[in-house]
Amino acid sequence: MHRIIIAGSSNGRTAVFEAANEGSIPSPAVDTNMLKDENIEEKLDWYRGKILSGASEIEKSLGWRLRTYFFPTSNINASIFYQSILNASYFTFERKIALYQKIPYFKKLRNYAQVINSLRFIQKLRNELAHWELLGYGTKNRDEIIIYNPVTFKKRRLNKRIIEEFIAHDKRLLKFFGWNYKLESKYGIKNKNISNSRTIEIREFARLLRYSKRI
């Protein structure tokens, strides 16, 4: 009988898992003394805040790119499509990516594969941070923390490297989708080739509000 003690779920409980076949669940390389360290929860909150908020902006920028594809010119129909359909709760990040992948125009672009790779990386990381639980510190580096899937026991290491990788994908997508105000505010990068998407978005929302008062 192979027993694995996994400490440090999000609510501070200790869970004990037993496996009939040794090796069926890999032994976690974590420091279980982290239960005495309250700072680990703050570190996890920091990772979640940075990645979840960044992923939310990428989802919005993808929605904006889809809107400008279907409605290159700003008008009331474009505003309704963007605000009431693409930004609706049922039109999830996955559905936006799936729609993007179905459009032949995007498939012909030179950097299409890179864009899809970046979208999937950010989507996967976002889902892990949103739903996986805290496992502990890495045994070799207390700047690294580990989260795990309580069903599959897959692990994700959160450290400087994963943040650097996230930032690289984030920059690529913000620039490609023309989400310029966020690209500049977060990274100080000005994308002169595309008009200010945030300004247009605000104008379209104001147009939609004016239109809604007339119906």
Characterize the structure shown.
- With 215 residues, the protein is α+β, with helices and mostly antiparallel strands.
- The protein has a domain at 38-132 and 159-213.
- Helices cover 55% and strands 13% of the residues.
- The protein contains eight helices and six strands.
- A four-stranded antiparallel sheet has the order 3-4-5-6. A two-stranded antiparallel ribbon has the order 1-2.
- α1 packs antiparallel against α2 (76-86).
- The longest helix has 32 residues, at 39-70.
- The protein is elongated.
- The model is unreliable at 1-36 (pLDDT under 50).
Show the helix and strand layout:
Layout: E1 2-7, E2 14-19, E3 30-31, H1 39-70, H2 76-86, H3 93-102, H4 104-107, H5 112-131, E4 133-138, E5 145-148, E6 155-158, H6 160-176, H7 180-187, H8 197-213
Antiparallel strand pairs: 1-2, 3-4, 4-5, 5-6
Number of helices: 8
Structural class: alpha+beta
Q: What are the low-pLDDT stretches, counting only 5+ consecutive residues below 50? A: 1-36
For the termini, the CA-CA separation is: 69 Å
Strand order of the largest sheet: 3-4-5-6
The biggest sheet amounts to: 4 strands, antiparallel
Strand content: 5-15%
- How is the quaternary structure best described? single chain
Rounded radius of gyration (Å): 21 Å
Fraction of helical residues:
55-70%
Q: What is the average per-residue confidence, as pLDDT, rounded to a whole number? A: 80
Principal-axes geometry comes out as elongated
Order of helices and strands: EEEHHHHHEEEHHH
**Strands, total number:** 6
